[in-house]
Amino acid sequence: MSSEISRRKFIAMTTTAAAAIAAPVTLIADESHAQQVPSARKKMKNMNVLVLHGSPHEDGNTAGLVDIATETLTKNGHKVQRIHVADLEVAPCIACMECQKNPNKPGCVFEDDGASTLEAMIHADALIITSPLYFAAFTAHIKPLIDRSFALCRKFGTKDHMSFVANKPTLFLSTGAGPYKNNGEILEGSCNDYTRFLKLDKVGFFYASSKPAVSDEKKAELKALVETL
Ligand SMILES: Cc1cc2nc3c(=O)[nH]c(=O)nc-3n(C[C@H](O)[C@H](O)[C@H](O)COP(=O)(O)O)c2cc1C
């Protein structure tokens, strides 16, 4: 922050958000991934599903999950658009809060691929957000976009909290070399915060260990979860 005023404003705007983030996240540390509780939402036909793929690898372990989701969705009549986020130019959020002044659109000061991707998120019927685990977190490829999504919500922590992507069915997919417990579940905590900020309808957080390879059992589990979208 370059001035005392902007620092104070930033603190005021983010205090409630920080309090909410600090709230305990209920995680079911169960390798069977019982955390995927399908929501009560009515299923839509012919959806345009936007995949934001956050691995640097277009054909890696996480992309394998995207392939399964894509196959299942297209079989069910939905259209899938996959964006390989590592190919985009997305400046990191600078917390200038300019976006928060615009009630009608994301209003981010950066007019880069991040801005067009936020628009694409608004126009999609459902979202799939993917990232391999990097130190139990999102990759550096997708994190700038996650942060820039702050421009999609307003007045977080107040009764007027709104989001341009409210109630959008959203599925999170991740792979990592290790287990879900104390590892994948940490990323799920971040996804839960993201869900709350953007008022998304979280369909599930699907985590599969990629070591030695994603098992057939996990693949079948993912297909069943995608069927609920
Ligand atoms: C920098 C880096 C950090 C990683 N951190 C973790 C981690 O914290 N937990 C984990 O289980 N795997 C971790 N991994 C392993 C990857 O998440 C795993 O191999 C993943 O399946 C790669 O997916 P991709 O093929 O889609 O890139 C890490 C890998 C790298 C390169």
Estimated radius of gyration:
17 Å
> Beta fraction of the residues?
15-25%
| Helix-strand makeup class | alpha/beta
**Major sheet characteristics:** 5 strands, parallel
Give, in order, the helices and strands. HEHEHEHEEEHEH
**Could you estimate the helical fraction of the residues in percent?**
25-40%
| Chain-averaged pLDDT | 87
- Uncertain segments of ≥5 residues (pLDDT<50)? 1-37
- Distance N to C terminus: 41 Å
CATH fold call: Rossmann fold
CATH class: Alpha Beta
Identify the bound ligands. flavin mononucleotide
Produce the secondary structure layout:
Blueprint: H1 4-22, E1 48-53, H2 61-75, E2 79-84, H3 113-123, E3 126-130, H4 143-148, E4 153-154, E5 162-163, E6 169-176, H5 180-198, E7 201-209, H6 216-226
Parallel strand pairs: 1-2, 1-3, 3-6, 6-7
Antiparallel strand pairs: 4-5
This protein binds flavin mononucleotide (FMN).
